[in-house]
Amino acid sequence: MSADVRRQRKAAIAESDERLLAGLGYKQEFQREFRPLEVFGIAFSIVGLVPSIASVLFYSIPNGGPVAMWAVASTFIFFGGLSMAELASAAPTSGGLYFWAHSYSSPKWRNLLAWIVGYANTIGMISSVASVDWGAAVQIMAAAGLSSNGSFTMTNSKTFGVYVAVVLSHTVVCSLGTKILARLQNVYIALNILLCFAIIIALPAATPRELKNSPSYALGNFTNLYDWPNGFAFILSFLAPVWTICSYDSSVHISEEASNAAIAVPWSIVWSISIGGILGFAVNVTLAFCMGQDLEGLMNNSLGQPMAQIFLNSFGKTITLAVWAFIILAQYMMGSSMMLATSRQSFAFARDGALPFSSWLYRMNSFTKTPVNTVLFCAAGSIALGALVFAGTQAVNAVFSISNIAQYIAYSIPIAARWIWRKENGWTPGPFSLGAWSGICAIVSVIWMIFTSIVFLFPTTSSTSAQDMNYTVVVIGGVLILSLVWYYFPVYGGVHWFEGPVPTVVGYRGGRKWMAQKDVEEVHDASVEKEK
Asked: What is the residue-averaged pLDDT of the chain?
């Protein structure tokens, strides 16, 4: 294909993307620099796999082991991804979830549901940044402990200091230009895949014979280190794969920066979950065969990371430090992508006036052409959540649950609304459509999300105390209650002024349903003429 043909094709795709966005009511403000592979890179780098599994292995090991729950959970997660991909193809906008909730709900409920989804998505994504960067800080602390032969003492204050440094560095990275952020995704993809295969191949080769487990133990043993019944312990272990393969809406929030978004975004969701599920299962099987049988020793090791101890037992100190450095780097990249997607979601929500200080948040930096203010907003929220560590270990661990539950609230409402009010919401599928399977996927995914959201509110053990309770319900409940208080607040509350997505194109008249193609073209052309 000649250079001229490529340029013409790129220009045609860009114009098509801009017209589709105008049909949703928004003018083009971002630079569309993300190629399809890089859109996939956002979602896949956030899955993270090896660093993600390292961050949450302490959930799966004491609740039956890392293998069986992964196969079960990733299958149900895939259903949710398919349902979201279909919505993303029909309406690829940075607002994503709350935009869909408003578009597909009945007139009576659309404003309230969009408000709830928007705030659940906001807190869910900010807590995802917090949980990823907290995982990076803990991994850095583990490396410090390993390199010092145990003389370094990890404290909450030290870990929080490293955590703040990681968050602030991500603030700088995610304030860069769109083209730089897009190209970085290629590095993130390569590192994550290479890291997976390195673990799958090298760990079995290096593990001493006495630490290798038989197939019957690795695939069939169920060890419950806590006091919940085995069945419920197995369900609690779902938090590990759900947290790992979560935030797959991240690629949705860069829709307005993606080329050929109606196709690239849904397929990035599908492929990131599929590849993440398969490679993640392979990594977990590898760990199960190579971790020995002293599970309590893995959970209570001085490094604070079960995976770091598994590597130390197999590789020795020098190689473990080398491998661990790449895991930290992958975790850091994961946090960078998460901060990027979170800032775009907050920008879109502020664009529609729903966040506090929306007029300040809805600003594009004139130099980088990126929403620097919302990056700062997300960083501040993440640091505030990280400060929960001073309330106790269980409090900061709750951040992992908060991200899952808040995101599942935000995911399930638009998926359900699209079917509950299907006779009146003017649904028109995009290029990615499930056809007759759409309803089945929606039912399975919504039931799964409701079920797991309830389960993740339970504490680690049945006999708990104020210090060891699960604070997820307190934090997420508090945020949602405050958002509802603001919505219904007399005179100034959102119920008096929030009308959902606010059009930014000249002459938009799409109303509650998608515009006819001729109207899309007229609105787009009018907007272009106005800006001239």
From this structure: 87
Q: Would you say 251 and 43 are in contact if contact means Cβ atoms under 8 Å apart?
A: yes
* Whole-number Å distance between alpha carbons of 287 and 109: 47
Give the residue among 38, 121, 125, 178 at the shortest CA–CA distance from 335. Answer: 125
DSSP 152-218: S---HHHHHHHHHHHHHHHHHHTTS-HHHHHHHHHHHHHHHHHHHHHHHHHHHHHS-GGGPPPHHHH
Token code pair at residue 296: 């309590």
Least confident of 35-44, 233-242, 469-478: 469-478
| Structure-block tokens of residue 179 | 């083209």
Contact 344, 130 (CB under 8 A): no
- Coil, strand, or helix at residue 34? strand
Assign 508 to helix, strand or coil.
Answer: coil
Residue 494 DSSP class: G
**Rounded to two decimals, what is the model's pTM?**
0.89
> Which ranges of 228-357 does DSSP label H, i.e. alpha helix?
230-236, 239-244, 261-290, 295-299, 306-315, 317-351
Percent of the chain with pLDDT over 70: 92
Both tokens of residue 220? 């069939």
Total H helices, total E strands in the chain: 21, 0
* Spatial contact of 407 and 120, defined as CB atoms under 8 Å apart: yes
* Secondary structure (3-state) at 515: coil
Encode pLDDT of 88-97 as tens digits.
999 999 999 9
Tell me how far apart the alpha carbons of residues 341 and 39 are, in angstroms, rounded to a whole number: 11
Contacts of residue 352, defined as CB under 8 A and 6 or more positions apart, other chains included, come to 95, 358, 498, 500, 501, 502
